Structure of Zinc-dependent metalloprotease:
Amino acid sequence: MLFPYLKVCLSGLREKKLEEKCMNGKIGMQVFSLLLALMLVSMVVVSTVSAQDVCRDGTAYFSSIQLSDKGGKVHLTNLPPAQEYELVTVNPSLFAVDAGSGRPVAVDILGKEYLLDLKQVPAPIAEDAKCIVVNESGTFTADFPWIQCYSGTLTEDPESYAFFTVGDGVILGTIRHGNNSYTIDQVGTTEVGGVRKIVHAIYNGSTVIDVKSPFAYDLQVPVSLEEVEKLEESEKMLRAQNPQIDPRSVTTVTLCTAHDWQFRNAFPSPNYEMANMIAQMGSAFSPSDIGVGFQINAFCDIGTVLGSTTNPYDLLQAFGENIKPDRDYSDSDIAVLFTGKELDGDTIGITYDVPGSSGHAYAVVQMVNAGSTYQATFSQRCVNTAHEIGHVFGGKHQDSTGSPSYARAYHWKDWGIWDRYTAIWTPFMGDEAMLEFSSDTNHGDASHDNARRIYELKGTVAGYR
Ligand SMILES: [Zn+2]
């Protein structure tokens, strides 16, 4: 077990952090010795669970918290709308050791043990990604702390989906299996032995009661014909400067992600939350007929900079003006604001109706429950983010009258029964909104093919930086 641990120690961090990390490693080793003893005990249990060579008992990564325990102070900030959930604290370093070991990992989810086959995948983060904090005293910059992402399936179901983002104090993850969609997300803080710990909720998305009304919508800021003409000219120039690359290759688009203090209040570790959302949202852009991979260059905490406005138009404009220096500094193609504010009216997101324009590559997405068809579950937040970023690449709603005519969202029925809508459908259709774009080769046809539009514009967007 020492080898996988050391591997994580060496591969998880950048060189300049190595010395510091290996000091942490000593502490880790002490913890590890203790856990080794625990593991020996648990192995007896595991051997009865499965003949497979699992890492350890599935309860090792999550420790249940009882709210009735009056001794412990638990500060909850963002409970899921699920009918059932379990509150836990987590052991990220232990999980990272095991998930990177190449052996099946057993996890206890709501009292049931699942076996996962996971492998480490690159986190959607630049090697030299920066955390930028803006407050009254000025702007402060720091390196991004360690992060590991793991992707895979349940051992028993190769069609299932599992993804985890692990870092300081957090194990954020999703397991989709049949009709169940389990989420592990951060929902508050507590203190254990004087140490602040992040409280996570484990819940099954299928126990969230679907809200059918009122509908939630997004907004696209219209731009004058004159400006569109000017933009088409500049798009042509950009294309000439950045000729379309090999169609089979993945185009990297860089992001400047930002959040306000309300988002930080809801998610105690906001940067890991944004990283996990971009990592999982990115799966909508990864099919070969799109071929876009995201890389976060900057994580910005803009605190109270945008003031108290909840007007979507004002917020988008203020965000664009304020984030531009950080977007330029970090060489990012697109800037996205994850807001913890509830936007006015039925709005849950906003961007500009001008794809192909670097000056308008800004989007705002609401990350809290709107009391409508948008309840801001983890998967719904990912769809909402894919929707707005999809607009930046020229993706359009199903009823758009704009050009080109094939850039349209799509609706279909699974098994002829269940309604399904691609990500850029409007209004937001709750859990029937899927994390995918309409595509001629999958859910869509020649006149409903946002994938094609995103594919066509990806070279232009990647050329913004
Ligand atoms: Zn839209």
In short: The domain at 217-462 is CATH 3.40.390.10 (Collagenase (Catalytic Domain)). The longest strand covers residues 180-192.
